[in-house]
Amino acid sequence: MPELPTTAVAAAASRPVEPPRTQRQLSRVEVADIAVRLFQEHGYEATSTVDIAEAAGVSRSTFFRQFRSKDDVIFADHDDLVARIEDYFAATHPDPWLAVCEAATMVFERFRERLEIVRIRDRVLRDTPVLRDRETVMAIRYERMFASYLRSTVPGVPPLTAIRFAAAVTATHNFVLRRLIRADDNVGPFSLATELAEVRRFFHPDAVASDSEVRSMGDVVVAVFPAATDPAELARAIEERLRTQAPR
After folding, report:
1. Are residues 54 and 140 in the same domain?
2. Nearest 5 degrees, angle CA 171-CA 176-CA 178?
3. Predicted model pTM
4. What is the pLDDT of residues 46-68, one digit of tens each?
5. How many structural domains are present in the chain?
6. Is the pLDDT of residue 168 over 60?
7. Which residues contact 60 (CB under 8 A, 6 or more apart)?
8. Is the domain of 54 the same as that of 173?
9. What local confidence, expressed as pLDDT, does residue 130 receive?
10. Residue 57 phi/psi, 5° resolution?
């Protein structure tokens, strides 16, 4: 093999060596989005953690640092939202009842911004019973956060009132979110702010409407229940009332 001229060797030696480019580390939510698409394409049970790690370009050890199991992947959004709500509740709010409604709205807006992947995830959830059970547990997690916040910030609030309010807010949010996710052309606009304002006035009659509630006021649904109504039954009844009043 012919030798390089001395000048060429010197030039090559003096040329700065560029460091190897490293791939940007994907966030938990980005890895989860890749996993959700794999679940849709191949099925949840048929997709392994190895498949997800390879598709996301991460090692198995990195995957398990981000997620405890495959089940956790599909709820990555919720983990981030719970942390955001905890930070939100740590601040002082003049109206705790409104603060709970605003926290529910934070969840709704996050999913509305990511509607394409949220719709894919919804289809995966509906096709996978074990994940539907986890989704129910996640809803209970929000309810408990909301009720705990009210009990710690509203002097003298009866514990059951806080629990019922949290259940009603969660049920209302879930109903409106499902309509957004599964909407078709004949479904009219539905305002989460309006529905949550009605829930708030039912439990807190002297509440003053927020600016967003005033802007979104339209038809409202009034629901009256006995004081002894079980929180779970209350949530189901409110959702059923909303369903019967929804535009067709």
Report:
1. no
2. 95
3. 0.72
4. 999 999 999 999 999 999 999 99
5. 2
6. yes
7. 49, 50, 53
8. no
9. 85
10. 70, 35
